[in-house]
Design goal:
By secondary structure, the protein is of the alpha+beta class. The chain is about 20% helix and about 25% strand. The N and C termini lie far apart (about 40 Å).
């Protein structure tokens, strides 16, 4: 586990439906439908370090049926925000079908409030990172996001 405080401003992206039940920058979806890194009791905000990775993550999670009216928000994580990096070499099998290891790690990270963000590798783009945000951590008060902008999906991605 490596961590500390960011030495630069980080940017992240999240895609969602601005007219949906929950705002795009929200952890309620992770509470209702836990992902690889959380359980219902540890609702986090899943984001990606790059816009293209956020698109890929949405494509694999949408099972090729994308909801209409998708928008993205650009998230700014200020210099000095606490972070932790998930070390894949220390956790063999983290990328397997059994998500138990990742869920347990994410649950402990969330409950212990070890940092505001957790940097993890993307499953679909292994050289890219996802940035998980713990909304219960006090450092997240400094994280901000822009207004939603439309996502333009190229039909070749899912057609």
């Amino acid at each position: 586990m490596t961590g500390g405080q960011t030495d630069r401003i980080l940017t992240a992206y999240r895609i969602g439906d601005p007219d949906g039940v929950h705002p795009i920058y929200d952890s309620e979806g992770a509470r209702l439908y836990p992902g690889r890194w959380n359980m219902s009791a540890s609702p986090i905000i899943y984001t990606s370090e790059h816009y293209s990775t956020a698109m890929l993550e949405n494509l694999v999670n949408a099972s090729s049926v994308l909801p209409p009216d998708q928008h993205h928000v650009r998230i700014t994580i200020p210099n000095g925000t606490s972070y932790e990096t998930f070390q894949t070499a220390a956790h063999p099998g983290w990328d397997g079908k059994d998500e138990g290891l990742c869920k347990a790690f994410g649950q402990a990270w969330y409950e212990e409030r070890r940092s505001a963000i957790l940097l993890v590798l993307s499953m679909v783009a292994r050289v890219e990172r996802n940035i998980l945000i713990n909304p219960a951590h006090p450092d997240t008060k400094g994280i901000s996001h822009d207004l939603p902008e439309p996502v333009w999906w190229d039909e070749r991605l899912y057609g």
